[in-house]
Amino acid sequence: MTSPLSDIAAEILKRPLAVIGTGTQGRRIALMLASQGGEVRIYARSAAGREEAKSFVAENLADIATRFGGTPGQVVLCDSMEATVANVGLAIEAVPEQLELKREIFRTLDRLAPADAVLGSNSSSYPSSQIVGGLTHPERVLNTHFYMPPLQNAVELMSCGATRPELIDALMDILRRLGLEPYHVQRESTGFIFNRIWAAIKRESLKVVADGVATPKDVDRIFQSVLRSAEAPFRLMDKVGLDVVLDIEEHYAAAAKGHSSEGPRALLRRYVHEGRLGQKTGRGFYDDYS
To answer: Checking CA distances to 199, which of 74, 75, 100, 234 falls within 20 to 30 Å?
Structure first.
């Protein structure tokens, strides 16, 4: 039996929820937020991106709501940030992995969202300490790093130390209610929990290919064979998007020791330059995703 929601969690869920960004992750986050009823607002600068996100949610919402014992909510497209965050309880930023863009988004959210609204960043590599500078209400900001829902439902919650602890507790409560698996990262860490481990696997896989030791397909096949894993490094990178993977690797190279090898990033840059971004363009390390 599901335990009662805390007062803070219940108040957040009484109000609209918002997702800023309509890429691979943004639309999936919106899908999960809409799986228990209520209103979910979607915003992106591109009208086409907003429509594509709404179509994705519409195609999958009934199934996901049923799977997690919920009721499909209402998805609303917004063409301005003001409309998106009016009276929201929670807003999740899911824009590309570019620090200045994220800072701009959070300055806008800090100014326009209700003072008690929780603001989360889906960033997979930038901790909130690099985002909250100059904000009026840093105590309601934290990282909310989603993986690839509804297939991979882990969410990592991480604070730089400024976030009110009760808000983290409330989000743990809410995310479980939405069919997600929240994990509290105990202290600020570049790469959170899983991505610190995944970064080493990803980078060495890229280096093996960049050095001419093996092809992406052979790396994936031996990885699956030895570990009996359904997933594999290059298929996962294609799923995430090679442009996103490159942004993350460039950030790691600038911010952390042990990420200095040029070969993996040069390989990614070549694929991105050729427009081979993975599943979203139909070509990446693989050409067939059937």
So the answer is: 100
Poorest-confidence range of 6-10, 21-25, 46-50, 259-263? 259-263
H/E element holding 142?
strand 141-148
In total, how many domains does the chain have?
2
Q: What is the CATH number of the domain that holds 92?
A: 3.40.50.720
Residues 150 and 217 in one domain: no
Same domain, 200 and 175: no
259 contacts: CB under 8 Å, gap ≥ 6: 199, 203, 249, 252, 253
DSSP state of 39: E
Q: What pLDDT digit, counting tens, does each position of 100-122 carry?
A: 999 999 999 999 999 999 999 99
User: The CATH number of the domain where 220 resides is what?
Assistant: 1.10.1040.10
How far is Cα 36 from Cα 57, in angstroms, rounded to an integer? 13
pLDDT digits (tens, 9 = 90+) for 124-142: 889 999 999 999 999 999 9
Burial of 162 (0-12, 13-18, 19+ CB in 10 A): middle
Cα–Cα distance measured from residue 248 to residue 243, given in angstroms and rounded to the nearest whole number: 9
DSSP 57: H
pTM of the entire structure? 0.82
Q: 43: which strand partners?
A: 20, 78
Q: How far apart are CA 148 and CA 145, in angstroms?
A: 10
